[in-house]
Design brief:
The protein is of the alpha+beta class. It has a domain of 81 residues: Structural Genomics Hypothetical 15.5 Kd Protein In mrcA-pckA Intergenic Region, Chain A, CATH 3.10.290. Helices cover 36% and strands 18% of the residues. Strands 3-2-5-6-7 form a 5-stranded antiparallel beta sheet. A hairpin with a 2-residue loop joins strand 5 and strand 6.
Length: 138
């Protein structure tokens, strides 16, 4: 374990991404920043660097405690990085999880029965004033 590691290997090793290929493609797409600047997958990270990873709709921030290139067990991850993501980002993630059917991604297919029931509940909660507009009154 040296004092530097490639950013794509580090992101994979500390389990931010499932595979190194996904980590490298995120770097190429500009979703990974070190110190506020977008980086290539070959960028080296050192101890103390702040890494920002954008996984829409949330931007996660991590501080490098130990640069490693080999994957470690999940229990050892806190020794390798410190999660400094703001609580507002987690609130945004929770809000997105709760209202999942509203922002349905294109290409996910038809809504499920659960999605339809959730939509029906939402429609019941909307005031009738918005739905009973009569154009004859104008």
């Amino acid at each position: 374990m040296g004092n530097e590691a490639r950013i794509d290997k580090w992101l994979w090793a500390v389990r931010v991404f499932k595979t190194r290929t996904i980590a490298a493609s995120a770097c190429k797409k500009g979703q990974v920043c070190v110190g506020g600047t977008q980086v290539k997958p070959s960028r080296m990270v050192r101890e103390g660097d702040v890494v920002s990873v954008r996984k829409p709709p949330v931007t996660f921030c991590f501080r490098v405690k130990q640069p490693i290139e080999n994957r470690v067990g999940a229990k050892l991850v806190p020794e390798m990085m410190e999660n400094i993501t703001s609580p507002e980002q987690y609130e945004l993630l929770e809000m997105n999880r709760i209202s999942g059917f509203v922002n349905r991604a294109k290409g996910l297919g038809r809504p499920t029965k659960k999605d339809r029931r959730s939509l029906d509940e939402f429609k019941e909660d909307v005031p009738d004033l918005l739905l009973d507009f009569d154009f004859d009154d104008i």
